[in-house]
Automatic annotation (TrEMBL):
This protein is involved in the repair of mismatches in DNA. It is required for dam-dependent methyl-directed DNA mismatch repair. May act as a 'molecular matchmaker', a protein that promotes the formation of a stable complex between two or more DNA-binding proteins in an ATP-dependent manner without itself being part of a final effector complex. GO terms for biological process: mismatch repair. Residues 200-318 form the DNA mismatch repair protein S5 domain. It comes from the Bacteria. The keyword Protease does not apply. Keywords: DNA damage, DNA repair. It comes from Jannaschia aquimarina. This is DNA mismatch repair protein MutL. One of its GO terms (cellular component) is mismatch repair complex. GO terms for molecular function: ATP binding; ATP hydrolysis activity; ATP-dependent DNA damage sensor activity; mismatched DNA binding. Belongs to the DNA mismatch repair MutL/HexB family.
Length: 322
């Protein structure tokens, strides 16, 4: 069991940023309105995620650490996934490769409880003090799998990857307040706005607001929203390209290619468009969980999606250019 969990853990948790992604997605799934993330040493020494979501009942804490014991499956339709997580793999994986401590108070419960696991060894549930929500603390990531430790980059690079992950999740959930800190250094802060464009401008840059063209197009059950910047706002790299499918940040070659193609006529070589594309469709038209950590997606009708994005961008750019 321990060995299986450590192997599976390598799939789900490649680096601190992937652990942060899983923990923040759990907080979002729990309906949190405020999420605070603290890290030390790029997340290798410490990742602590505090949320004000619905919490976990004491009796369910051991379950949260056992494999494939998700509370989020929707009947038996594996593809009908409405929440971020569904595999029930993240917490057991994290428990297998570090020192994990979960403290939680279920909504309506008179007291909080805590469970710890060290390198896959799960301890007894005990009473704890917490007014609401959940605190998940992961220390010494990969101390039980030294081979993985070697693949980590510098503290600075890991901190940047964590920050990028939080920014993307913050764009996907503009109604939620986020903070990311390292000791007393605040690396990112987003107040709850409710206005998605405010959140985009916070991440991309304040002037994005003025240079952003709104997108709103639909084709065969796929709906595209978001904002695309004028060509003059383009950059020398693709860092400011944000892609979301059904509210979930993704990295996907096909979507990136469609974004590039939409700008092909108006951008010189070497320039990269800046945009945040939000694609929505019936959950049965897309598989967002091809790989647990890599945030790939697979569409039933990739050609339709590509055509929708390219034509919506061309249309918006043609209108916005004059
Ligand atoms: P999944 O998210 O795929 O269900 P995880 O291993 O990430 O699997 O989490 C296991 C379970 O623990 C979840 O299904 C959920 O019931 C519970 N859980 C984890 N994190 C939180 C949280 N922050 N708030 C409330 N419940 C949580
Ligand atoms: Mg999860």
């Amino acid at each position: 069991e321990g060995a299986i969990n450590r192997i599976a853990a390598g799939e789900v948790v490649e680096r601190p940023a992937s652990a942060v992604k899983e923990l923040v997605e759990n907080a979002l799934d729990a309906g949190a309105s405020r999420i605070a993330v603290e890290i030390a040493e790029g997340g290798r020494a410490l990742i602590r995620v505090t949320d004000d979501g619905h919490g976990i009942a004491a009796a369910d804490l051991p379950l949260a650490l056992s494999r494939h014991a998700t509370s989020k499956l929707d009947g038996d339709d594996l593809l009908a996934i409405h929440s971020f997580g569904f595999r029930g793999e993240a917490l057991p994986s994290l428990a297998a490769v570090g020192r994990l401590k979960i403290t939680s108070r279920a909504a309506g419960s008179p007291e909080a409880a805590q469970i710890r696991a060290v390198a896959g060894r799960v301890e007894e549930v005990r009473p704890a003090a917490l007014t609401r929500g959940t605190v998940v603390e992961l220390r010494d990531l990969f101390f039980a799998t030294p081979a993985r430790l070697k693949f980590l980059k510098t503290e600075r690079a890991e901190t940047m990857a964590v920050t990028d992950t939080i920014r993307r999740l913050a764009m996907a959930a503009p109604e939620v307040a986020f903070t990311l800190s390292d000791g007393d250094r605040v690396l990112f802060r987003a107040d709850p706005h409710g206005d998605p464009l405010d959140r985009l401008a916070l991440v991309i840059g304040r002037d994005f607001r003025a240079d952003a063209l709104p997108l709103d197009a639909e084709r065969d059950g796929f709906r595209l929203g978001g904002h695309a910047a004028l060509p003059t706002y383009s950059r020398g790299n693709a860092a400011h390209q944000y892609l979301f499918v059904n509210g979930r940040p993704v990295r996907d070659r096909m979507l990136q290619g469609a974004l590039r193609a939409g700008y092909a006529d108006v951008l010189a070589g070497g320039r990269h468009p800046v945009a945040a594309l939000f694609l929505r469709c019936d959950v049965r038209l897309v598989d967002v969980n091809v790989h647990p950590a890599k945030t790939e997606v697979r569409f039933r009708e990739a050609g339709v999606v590509r055509g929708l994005i390219v034509s919506a961008l061309r249309h918006a750019l043609a209108q916005g250019g004059h």
